[in-house]
Amino acid sequence: MQAWRVRENGEPGEVMRREETAPPVPGAGQVLLKVRATGLNFPDALLCRGQYQVRPPLPFTPGVEICAETEDGRRVLATPALPYGGLAAYALADESALLPAPGTLDDAEAAVLHIAYQTGWFGLHRRAGLRAGETLLVHAAAGGVGGAAVQLGKAAGATVIGVVGGAAKAAVAREAGCDIVVDRHAEDVVAAVKEATGGRGADVVYDPVGGTAYQQSAKLVAFEGRIVIVGFASGTVPAPALSHALVKNYSILGLHWGLYAAKDPAGVRRCHDTLTELAAKGLIKPHVSERVPFDGAAGAVQRLADGVTTGRIAVLPEGVRA
């Protein structure tokens, strides 16, 4: 089979190589899946760089999110078991973690529903307890993780403010459903959000960026507000001032969605049922900005790593037209 493999750590565009290799052999409790579409995620870039919290043995195949087909013909969503990731004709996954692909979404849309929307739902509802009528501030609102949070916030009845970098990304955030969009390249984020909220700030802040974005979050979170820490796409891990959280009465909440697969798999399945229902009602729909042919996978992961993409990118198998 054809697979993209990484034999040394570095930038995705330099270390990802397309190779012919044998299909992986399932271990105990695993199944072999025929890949129908692979959703690209920032962790794919971190895996290539050797900077992710999980470090698979070299060589490995990136791709942590797929829509695939089982040997008995079921269409499913899965997070592949590394080192046999989704940027290949076939991948491995734990049979117990397979989820049915929503019938209202095509393969590319279904592939990118899984991680970003699960992360958004657990972050906004399980961790932050977002309520209808509250204000939600989303950093990187034009990206895959941020865009999912925007849609889920609107579905929950919140007023959503999106922070983006540039006019093109502002247009994407508006299309995703943001009520207010702040372009950090052209505006003072803190001043703009305070003006939009009458000085009160946001009840919930969703931050997949870290760095300067977190500093803004601490200034903009409302009394008894909640900041959800999702990741550090900026490359800078902030050091929160706990004294500030004390005097302003806000909560700092961590969200590592991958832990729920081990700690609460039933919760993951319930979340998937909720997301499937929201998709069927048209309240959420993944924005697939690019459907990339298999031979373009390395370049697509590099663009994601460079922060120049919007929405979600899906890689299609060999022979499938974009």
Describe the structure.
It is built from twelve helices and 15 strands. The chain is α/β, with parallel strands linked by helices and 322 residues long. The strands form three sheets. Strands 3, 4, 5, 6, 7, 14 and 15 form a seven-stranded mixed sheet that branches. Strands 10-9-8-11-12-13 form a six-stranded parallel sheet, sandwiched between helices.
Element-by-element helix/strand order: EHEEHEEEEHHEHEHEHEHEHEHHEHE
Structural class: alpha/beta
Oligomer: single chain
Specify the number of helices.
Answer: 12
The number of distinct β-strands equals: 15
Binned strand content: 15-25%
Silhouette: globular
Radius of gyration from the CA trace? 19 Å
For the terminal residues, how far apart are their CA atoms? 20 Å
Kindly report the average pLDDT value: 95
Q: How much helix is in the residues?
A: 25-40%
Sheet with the most strands?
A: 7 strands, mixed
Low-confidence stretches: none
List the helices and strands and how they pair.
Blueprint: E1 2-6, H1 12-15, E2 16-20, E3 30-39, H2 42-49, E4 66-69, E5 75-78, E6 90-94, E7 99-100, H3 107-111, H4 114-127, E8 135-139, H5 144-155, E9 159-164, H6 167-176, E10 180-183, H7 189-196, E11 202-207, H8 212-220, E12 221-229, H9 242-248, E13 251-254, H10 258-263, H11 265-280, E14 288-293, H12 297-306, E15 312-316
Parallel strand pairs: 8-9, 8-11, 9-10, 11-12, 12-13, 14-15
Antiparallel strand pairs: 1-2, 3-4, 3-6, 3-15, 4-5, 5-7
Helix pairs in contact: 2-12, 4-5, 4-11, 7-8
